[in-house]
Specification:
- By secondary structure, this protein is mainly alpha-helical.
- The chain is 57% helix and 0% strand.
- The radius of gyration is 14 Å and the shape is globular.
Amino acid sequence: MLFQGFKNFALAAAALCLSFQTFATNCPQALPASDIGFCASFQQVAQCHCQASGLPARMCNNVSMVYKRMISTFGSIERACQFQKDTTYEICIQDWRCYQEGGLTDEGQLCNATGLACQ
């Protein structure tokens, strides 16, 4: 039973990796990281990419879990952002950083217009 769960997770992780490597999705773009609506839009986009990778919707509802699966698949946020095709590497890194940590964007603006993390 444990092996079957691991096998399913491994297949889902492989699907996530494959989807990021080979094509862009039809998922929307998140609002700019400095926008007051960034957190909600980023959450929607992360869930969309997760589902587009083949994972069930129920596994994609928690952005923290999406991040953990992404890191377990790619090893780092930098590698994950290199594989995705929907935005630039720099925006990908900035968006995840703003979502998780808050602070300032690369342009010196407050993340989420507040400087606070989304989580």
